[in-house]
Amino acid sequence: MKIVRQTQKVVRLEQHRWFGYHPKWLAKSTCEQLINELADAVQWPESHIHMFGRRIAEPRRSAWFGDPHCSYTYSGQLRQPQAWRTELFQLKILLESELNHNFNSVLVNCYRDGQDYMGWHRDNEKELGQNPLIASISLGASRRFLLRERRGEQQFEFLLGSGDLLVMRAESQEICEHSLPKMRALQQARINLTFRQIKQS
């Protein structure tokens, strides 16, 4: 498929200089095509996570893609990568050119409606190395995205829309936690693509 990037605009988050926000980074037509292809073709295994000492159903669907060596462990489960899909690999190449950074994997999360969510967390697993750069693309329904300082009281919120790109740089995972809270009235789905670099041990 043809990936169409729509804008060069970057919104600086002055409160959090480790984050870069690129609204409508992908064209609407590209977003719609990606949603249709991923929703129909990706295998969304139902999985469980460990939270507060309990094993619970993951409150979203997720799939892991990447280079063959890119196994990834989080929330007590080991994920082996599925082979790159063409459209995901095309996005990887585009992001590498845009950000001057190499990626070898992507976590695809599907939030089926506003009941699915992501709790407060940091992307600080050992496989990501120190100070990882993570590129996050949103597709579909707009969702609230929250940031909070780990050693302060400041919290920041904004709305991630379809085609938006959020880049979490350098020490962002050390300084902040982030979450995607429930939006109970929302009926539409959102797909989120977070491109990462897994370090070989």
From TrEMBL:
It holds the Pfam family 2OG-FeII_Oxy_2. InterPro entries: AlkB-like (IPR027450), AlkB-like_sf (IPR037151), ALKBH3 (IPR032854), Oxoglu/Fe-dep_dioxygenase_dom (IPR005123). Its cofactor is Fe(2+). GO terms for molecular function: catalytic activity, acting on DNA; demethylase activity; dioxygenase activity; hydrolase activity; metal ion binding; oxidoreductase activity, acting on paired donors, with incorporation or reduction of molecular oxygen. It comes from the Bacteria. SUPFAM superfamilies: Clavaminate synthase-like (SSF51197). GO terms for biological process: DNA alkylation repair. This is Alpha-ketoglutarate-dependent dioxygenase AlkB. It comes from Alginatibacterium sediminis. The lineage of its organism: Bacteria, Pseudomonadati, Pseudomonadota, Gammaproteobacteria, Alteromonadales.
